[in-house]
Design a protein that fits this description.
By secondary structure, the protein is an all-alpha fold. Helix content is 70%, strand content 0%. The chain folds into two domains: 179 residues, no CATH class; 286 residues, no CATH class.
Length: 473
Amino acid sequence: MLFNSLPYFFLFAFTYLIYWNVNQTGKKLTIVIASILFYAYFSVPFLFHFIAVVAGNYWYSSYLWNKKEKKEDTNNSIKYIIILNLINLGIFKYFYFFTDSIYFLTRSQSVKTFSSEWDILLPLAISFYTFQLIALQIDIHRGQAKERITFYDYFLFIFFFPQLIAGPIMRTDNFLPQMNNPTIDPDRMKKGLFLIIGGLFKKVVIAENIAIIISPLYLSPSQYDPYSLWITLFGFACQVYCDFSGYTDIARGSANLLGYEIPENFYGPLLASSMRDLFTRWHVTLSTWLRDYIYIPLGGGKASFARSNWNLVITNTLGGLWHGANINFVLWGAFLGSFIAIERWLQKLIGKESFLDNKFLTPLKIILTFVIFSVSGIFFRCGANGTESVSAAIDYFSGLARFPVQGITLDRIDEILSFLALTMIFNVFQKHPYFYQKLKKFQDILLPIFGVVILLLLGIFGENGKDFIYFQF
């Protein structure tokens, strides 16, 4: 059920009308039913699988709470539930990645035959709910979840439909304290509507139109000229930002209208002045998850300088693998992790106080960071092409520096520059909330105008809504 579709509109409208006309128990029941319907729309069999996974995790959480109350050690116990959740994720998401890797290394026909005998589909949102479940178990183990959670609240925390499919990845302190006290007022309603309208604009008007323009190029990058290849790089960075940030906006806006706040995931990432800064602004709930549950347990920054850099590369490589069961996603994560480590090394080499800290160089650093991030998108986007992803990425990289300049120019490529400008405007508003606060003075006038405009644009551009990119993860 896509956010930019009529089924979601009707589901949310009925949920909203019932939700605000019943008591608190009825509110929870309404969201639970809506969440079940939302997931069942994709797959009823996987709905039962999802419920079983949540029920199993709840039982184990109760077991951990019992041990904590008895002052018993949970260091060994926590490992088992993490392993079980990762096995569940691994079977569905990484089965073919592992068997294909073994076949590549051994050329064993028995492995290839074994792999071909299975037809494993990917449950919707399995990557997101697995990380959320693991975080909840670890928070209980660490004592960060102070009180027991009823099964009803546990279920609602994991199943909450606005953020179920692609996050944000919520933590115990993000949502649980609000669960029994949803609040709504005119400001929150207006904020929610603005977020939904802005999210739809990002997704339907910017992301989907960029996708239509650039998709042909990825089928055969070697046929296109360097100009098309470079502009497409920047176009895809804008597409994935508008697609995922648009999803997050709609999720947050929907939650606002139900009386809840869920975390922001983006803070103007395409205006970051370094790769390290970018990942404090891009997919923040995943970045902090990787930091808290992988990077810090590996030793984080407390280890030696060389080891902490290595920990960064490992963490980002695993983050890349989380995105997709494809070697290109692994390379994407390693590429980004390596650049963050190189930045740390240069900072140590040059020193904290240097000419690089001059504020007049900030625009240059923003441009350089955006270019590096856009180049990394070659791995990410080609990773969606399947078995030929590595060769497509190699063709793309080689074409960027092709000389003499040759190849065909992609149709409508210059339109990407207009979408790039629109994307940067959204990043300015995210990075500098000051501008949004100024706009709030005119929200009573702007809200109906923006509402009519987005309806007209949906009529023009939204006839064949596409999946959000992060639905595949």
